[in-house]
Design a protein that fits this description.
- This protein has 269 residues and is an all-alpha fold.
- The chain has one domain.
- Helix content is 79%, strand content 0%.
- The chain is built from twelve helices and no strands.
């Protein structure tokens, strides 16, 4: 019994470490290289908690707007309400994560858009200034997520809205399992250190079971295949880019989260 309780306590601690690292919902926790690597397998469960929070807030706003306006589903006012609720969903993500993943997306957009390679690529990746390609990346991904979220909210796809952040954070784990880090002591290196064969198998199994559950809930076969194929291509593309440019860094992982989230939201429309 004591051994089981000890394992549960450690698991709970790793989960809180992941939630504290990925968001501001948990107060900052003392961490080191070991604890950061150990919390990586808990990224998707932490994303599930975030998805519940964002979706609950969006549902409350949508319900309030529906009651006060008295509009019917699919009316023009209902779609505007869905757009506002989708904006709130994204605003909460930006607030709760401190914009960390979006910053990685912008940095990677600038670095890839520049066409640079090697040391110059890493220099642009580390540059905190926002360039044109980074701004366009933010605009495209944010607007894509906003439109997809509004559609899901308008038709009541609540489970998908909860699952999207978990899928996006799973994308970071899949990427960390697919490419070497730029530096063992960097965030990318610590994420890769947290991946072992057991974690790989668990995440593959979880993705398969989730697709089966979504199919049972009405997602078509072609949508399940599209989601699987698009996610596989996205992971392969990011991994190949990382290998070509000297390895994974935290910016790659942050971009993977937002791109994976967009992939999930679009393919399940």
């Amino acid at each position: 019994m004591n051994g089981c309780a000890s394992r549960l306590t450690r698991a709970g601690g790793r989960f809180l470490d992941a939630l504290a690292f990925l968001s501001r919902l948990v107060p900052p926790r003392a961490c080191n290289a070991h604890t950061l690597a150990a919390c990586v397998p808990w990224f998707a469960p932490a994303g599930l908690v975030l998805g519940c929070l964002y979706t609950l807030a969006a549902w409350l706003l949508l319900t309030l707007l529906s009651v006060t306006s008295g509009t019917a589903l699919f009316s023009g006012a209902a779609w505007l309400s869905a757009a506002l609720a989708a904006w709130l969903w994204l605003a909460l993500e930006l607030w709760s994560t401190r914009g960390l993943h979006w910053d990685g997306l912008a940095d990677l957009g600038d670095a890839c858009g520049s066409g640079a390679t090697g040391a110059r690529f890493r220099e642009i990746l580390r540059d905190s200034r926002l360039g044109a390609f980074g701004a366009l990346s933010l605009l495209l991904i944010f607007s894509g997520q906003w439109l997809a979220l509004a559609w899901h909210l308008a038709v009541g796809h609540w489970p998908l809205l909860v699952l999207a952040p978990a899928w996006g954070r799973a994308c970071a784990v899949w990427l960390a399992a697919s490419a070497p880090p730029h530096s063992p002591t960097s965030l990318g290196g610590l994420a890769c250190a947290g991946i072992n064969p057991t974690v790989r198998r668990l995440y593959r199994l979880a993705a398969f079971l989730l697709l089966c559950l979504l199919a049972a809930q009405g997602l078509s076969l072609w949508q399940c295949l599209l989601l699987s194929g698009a996610q596989y291509w996205l992971t392969r593309y990011l991994a190949a880019t990382a290998r070509r440019q000297g390895g994974l860094s935290g910016d790659f992982l942050g971009a993977a989260i937002e791109l994976g989230q967009l992939c999930f939201l679009l393919t399940t429309l």
